[in-house]
Amino acid sequence: MTLRPPLRALLLVGPMLVFLGLFFVWPLVTVIFQAVSDPSVSRVLTRTAAVIDEWDGTGLPSQEVQAAFRADIVANTDDMAMGDVTRRLNATKSGFRSLMGKTLSAVRENPDADLAAIDKRWGDPEFWAAIKSNASPYTDSFLLAALDLERNKSGEIAAMPEGTSANATILLRTLWTALIVTVCCLLIGLPYAMIAASVSGWKRSVLLGAVLLPLWTSLLVRTAAWMILLQDNGIINQALMGLGLTAQPVALIYNRLGVVIAMTHVLLPFMVLPIYSVLLTVPNNLMAAAASLGAHPFRAFLRVLLPLSFRGVVSGVLLVFMAAIGYYITPALLGGASDQMLSSVIAFYATGSANWSMAAALGLILLVLTLLLYAVYNRLSRDPVQAR
Question: Which of 27, 53, 106, 134 could form a disulfide with 41 if both were Cys (CB 3.0 to 4.6 A apart)?
């Protein structure tokens, strides 16, 4: 039996589609879902979540809501799940940790106990409002917290109190560090690519091999090598003091300078190669023609060569910036406490505090930013002739 062409094509690309679905689409969907998912309360307090939504938030909730809350406490047998509920509610309203500990033992002994008699805090509507705000399995609180925002008592988005969170500060630091690294790569990569494109033979091979060498070495090995070079008794400081340029070692490690130096070295190929590939398409006689018309070499560069290489420059800038904002190993090993980037915070929430939703929210912000930059890159790197 002969298969139809569309079916044969589907069978050929089927393994690739399965691979993309398992290793790209599914993880992205999981991250997005985790960033807006908070089922810790609704999974345990199922009866309460079903009826507390009818409470308008004024006064105390009805006896039906309180009875549902007591029933959920009695029905729950998973102390770990109840601990997650307590932690989530305590993050919204301080005091829930001691309140829940006191209430659990009392209600399990007497399922019909009056909550206000157990603890007078159950007569405070703010504690019930905390349960209501966390009753839904979906929330935007993690995404807002990733930007140092929260919802106030009236449900409006407002800035968190100063000192509560530093996620927005770290995000700005990440963008600023990535920008500095991008500028450094551009200042080094543009003239380097111009030189590599202007020579031929073994000279070009040596120049391209030198810039490609970092790509053939493990990132961890490169970072460890920079730790050796930049330390107080490293080669660089010894050379500076040997030449009499400094009387004591210069702080080149565990600060922003060390992070920028190492990241610039690692990401330089992503700047050089796009510019180099564009410069190869530029005729070699254009600069000579501009000089023959009386243009100064610098003016010829600004008016002739730079505009023709602009597409490669933009592509290199976006590639370096997109890679830099997600860097983790280099800032973690070479930076100080005030130089950690957003990837380090994501790692802390994922492995240090097991707050997967917060880690996913921060990761989603980086993902959206990267996708926007990639869209710009895809638009600017498109061939103008093919785009017509």
Answer: 134
CA angle at 96 for the pair 94 and 100, rounded to the nearest 5°: 170
Structural contact between residues 187 and 314, judged by C-beta atoms closer than 8 angstroms: no
Interatomic CA distance for residues 205 and 5, integer angstroms: 45
The residues near 158 (Cβ < 8 Å, ≥ 6 apart) are: 149, 150, 151, 152
233: number of CA atoms within 13 Å, CB side? 0
Q: HSE on the CB side for 213, CA within 13 Å?
A: 9
CA distance 259 to 340: 9
Q: What distance lies between CA 170 and its chain's CA centroid? A: 10
On the 0-12 / 13-18 / 19+ scale of CB atoms within 10 A, 88 is buried
Rg (CA), the chain: 29
Residues 20 and 113: their CA atoms lie apart, in Å, by 55
Closest to 267 in 3D by CA, of 182, 180, 381, 172:
182
CATH number of 167-387: 1.10.3720.10
pTM: 0.81
Per-residue model confidence as pLDDT tens digits over 346-375: 888 888 777 888 889 998 988 888 888 888
